[in-house]
Amino acid sequence: MLEIKDSVAVITGGGSGIGLSLAEYWVKQGGKVVLGDIAEEPLKKAKEKIEGMGGVAEIVVCNVTNEDDCGRLADTAIEKFGQINLVAPFAGIIKDGLMVSPDREGKVQMKMPLSDFKMVVDINLTGVFLTVRECSERMINNKCKGLICLVSSTGSLGTAGQISYSSTKAAMSVMPKVITAEFFRRGLSDRLRCIAVAPGYVGTDMVKNMNQKALDRIIENVPIGRLIEPEEVAMFVGDMYKNEGIAGDVYFIHGGLRLGSKG
Ligand SMILES: NC(=O)c1ccc[n+]([C@@H]2O[C@H](COP(=O)([O-])OP(=O)(O)OC[C@H]3O[C@@H](n4cnc5c(N)ncnc54)[C@H](O)[C@@H]3O)[C@@H](O)[C@H]2O)c1
Fold it and tell me: Using an 8 Å Cβ cutoff, are 169 and 155 in contact?
């Protein structure tokens, strides 16, 4: 069993939503946080909030698609706190739309722009790869013990209108298997674990900014009758961190949502 007290979490997307909730949870349990985000103002507010709670937070303005930025983020944790115990690469975006949209006459009038598709892949997939690679390097070189916790989604099972998002979140469910197998080969898997948590619909800005009708339709299909709270995802990550029996797979937190696309 791992203790959160005095452990160090590196969290991207730490300026808002699930990342910020995880940071708050972590410091409440006695841990320290290094928060990375591209949005400077929310990041500064996050630091104030954490410090107002009596917690310790370092912040790094960074773009997770940039190799040097991810290296700087990982270095900050080692320089300030000497270790990394949790890596939570939670920075992510959605750019939803149909791949091709035929009109009433059956002719395609609109296609998803390549730039939209690539932006989602760059942030949600390449950004995670870079964050995890840079943090893993420091964790191994500094003999750290802990968890790499990716964030997948129920969208990983295939949601219409989310070809880019669903594809990147499906990748998050295979990465823990690859990384765990690679660490196992190198004799590291007893101290470095990797998993993904896969939330359903969580009440952060990403979801609350959806049109109300679409949101109502979503909630109608959630057996617990509401969105998951960001704090519930944070607690879930904490439980996964503490429990060293959990490794190499994807774990859902979705309030009983029936999985898979309904079209
Ligand atoms: N909200 C949900 O229902 C839900 C469900 C399943 C999975 N997730 C995943 O959880 C993660 C967090 O989602 P959220 O709802 O908290 O979203 P959010 O929009 O509140 O937070 C995402 C954060 O990522 C940051 N970010 C975006 N691009 C970045 C970049 N290039 N570099 C650094 N930071 C960047 C944003 O500034 C923002 O602070 C995402 O990966 C999302 O896909 C969310």
Answer: yes
List pLDDT tens digits, range 52-84: 999 999 999 999 999 999 999 999 999 999 999
Ligand 1: centre distance to CA 123 (Å): 10
**CATH assignment at residue 165:** 3.40.50.720
Around ligand 1, the residues with Cβ closer than 6 Å are 12-13, 15-19, 37-39, 42, 62-65, 90-93, 123, 127, 151, 153, 199, 201-202, 204-207
Q: What pLDDT does residue 261 have? A: 57
The answer to whether residue 261 sits within a structural domain is: no
Three-state SS at 239: helix
Give the pLDDT score at 208.
81
Ligand 1 mutation pick, 10, 93, 150, max ligand atoms within 8 A of CB: 93
Look at residue 71 and tell me if it is in a domain. yes
Q: How many domains does the chain have?
A: 1
In sequence order, the 6+-apart residues with CB closer than 8 A to the CB of 105 are: none
pTM over 0.85: yes
13 CA distance to ligand 1 middle (Å): 6
